[in-house]
């Protein structure tokens, strides 16, 4: 007779572990190098949560709930939203030759 053991898990939230500005910038840089737009948007959401979504909402003029939706894994934000978020987080978009 086999007994089943229930394994208790919890979700992993990188926002809890990205503490310094260098950590946050490095995380975003790695995600941007991958080139997947959904990954980049998700990374911006993680960084926004790590820094504080309420403050980001104030700085961008975008409602907190709208930011959560736009910067989620299923989000599809307008470029203007991404641009405002980058600026409010203290980042700039750059074009570099590949």
Task: Tell me what you see in this structure.
With 98 residues, this protein is mostly helical. The protein has one domain. It is built from 5 helices and no strands. Helix 1 runs antiparallel to helix 2 and helix 2 packs across helix 5. The model has no long low-confidence stretch (mean pLDDT 91).
Fold blueprint:
Layout: H1 21-34, H2 37-51, H3 53-60, H4 64-70, H5 79-89
Helix pairs in contact: 1-2, 2-5
Q: Profile the largest sheet.
A: none
Order of helices and strands: HHHHH
Instruction: Evaluate the radius of gyration.
Output: 16 Å
> Total strand count, please?
0
**Average pLDDT taken over every residue:** 91
Task: Give the count of helical stretches.
Answer: 5
The percent range for strand residues is under 5%
Give the count of structural domains.
1
Give the helix proportion (percent range).
55-70%
Unreliable stretches covering 5 or more consecutive residues? none
Distance between the termini: 59 Å
The backbone outline, from C-alpha atoms, is globular
- Structural class by helix and strand composition: mainly alpha
Write a brief structural summary.
By secondary structure, the protein is mainly alpha-helical.
Protein traits:
5 helices, mainly alpha, 98 residues
């Amino acid at each position: 007779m086999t007994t089943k053991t229930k394994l208790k898990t919890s979700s992993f939230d990188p926002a809890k572990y990205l503490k310094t500005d260098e950590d946050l910038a490095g995380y975003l840089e790695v995600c941007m190098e991958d080139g997947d737009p959904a990954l980049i948007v998700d990374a911006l959401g993680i960084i926004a949560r790590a820094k504080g979504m309420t403050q980001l909402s104030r700085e961008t003029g975008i409602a907190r709930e709208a930011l959560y939706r736009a910067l989620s894994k299923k989000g599809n934000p307008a470029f203007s939203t991404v641009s405002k978020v980058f600026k409010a987080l203290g980042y700039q978009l750059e074009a570099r030759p590949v």
